[in-house]
Specification:
By secondary structure, the chain is of the alpha+beta class. It has six helices and 15 strands. Helix 1 packs across helix 4. It is globular and about 60 Å long.
Amino acid sequence: MPELRKDPVSGRWVIIASDRNNRPNLFPKVGPSPRTDPAVCPFCPGHEEETPSELYALRAPGTRPDHAGWTVRSMPNKFPALRIEGDLNREGVGVYDKMNGVGAHEVIVETPNHDEDLVDLSPERIAAVFEVCQIRVNDLANDERFRYVLLFKNQGESAGASVGHAHTQLIATPVIPKRVLEELEGARYYYTHRERCIFCDIVKQELSDGKRLVDQTARFIALSPFAARFPFEVWVMPKPHQAAFRHVGPADRLEFATLLRRVLRRHALSIGNAAFNYMFHSSPFGLENNPEYHWHLEIIPRLTSVAGFEWGTGFYINPTPPEESAAAMRAVDPEPLARTMASSTGARETRE
C-alpha cells in the first residue's frame, strides 16, 4: 500500500510507492564508462591557461598560480550562470520584479588526477577540498550584494556534469533560494512552538529509531530522510547544533569528510556508479548563529526521473522506502571497497 509522508521541515509531501516493486536489489548497478581524454580536459594540470585565472589553490611551495603543482584549485566558471560584475538594479515591471544577473559562479577542482573521483580520495584530501570551499564562501560573504552561496556537485552526465574531471561548484546569489527559504520557514515555525531545532530533534529520533540510519561518527550522522524524495537519498549533518557550514573547524571538517567518503562508498556498493547530485544547505549570510536551522548535505542518486505528476503537483514519487534504502546501505562494508570503477561518469563534453 503506498504511503503519503510529510517532510517535517519543508512541509512537502512525498508518495512512497513501494508497490512499484523497485526494491534496492532491482536497481541496475552502473558500471564504469569511458571518461573524456585527459589530453583535452581543461581541469588537468598543464591546462591552466584554458580556464579563468585561479582564485585560490592549495599547491606545492614554490609553484606559481595558474601553473601545475596544485592539489585543489578554484577558479571562476568559464560559462557562469551569474556574473560578478555590476549592480543589482532591482526594479518592478508592472506586477513583475527583476534585477541584473549579478552573482558568482565558481569551480573547485578536487584533484589534479583525471581518473580520481571524490570517493577515491582519502578523508584528509576530501577535507582539503571543503577547506577551499569554505575559504571561497567566506570570501564571498564579504560582498554585500550576496545573501547566499550554494555549494553543489553534479557527478555523471545525467546529473548535469559536462566535465568528467572531479569538481564541486558554488553559486552566490543576491536572494535566498526558494528551497532553502522553505526549510528556514519550517524550522522557524517548529522553533517558535517548541523552542528546539527541528534538525536536532530529527537527529535524536533517527539515532533512537535506527531504521533510517545509514552511518555515523561521534559528531556526524548520515540518514535516509523519513520523506525521502528519491531512492537512496541520504542527508549528512552534524549531531551537535551547527547553523552554517562555512564556520566548521578543521577537526569537524575531517570527521565530516570521513563519513561522506563512507557514504559514497556505500552508494557505490549498493547501486553502482549511479550519477548523483549533492547540495549543501546552510544558514544564509548574517544568520550563522541561527538557533533554528541546522546545516546539512543532501545527496541524491539519479536512479529515477521527475515527470509530469511531480512537476504539476510538487509531490515526489519514491518507489523505494527510505528504510529499505538505509538497510541496503548498512548491509555493505564501505572500507575494503576496491575502486575498479574509477571512471564513474559517462562521456562528457569539456564545457561546464
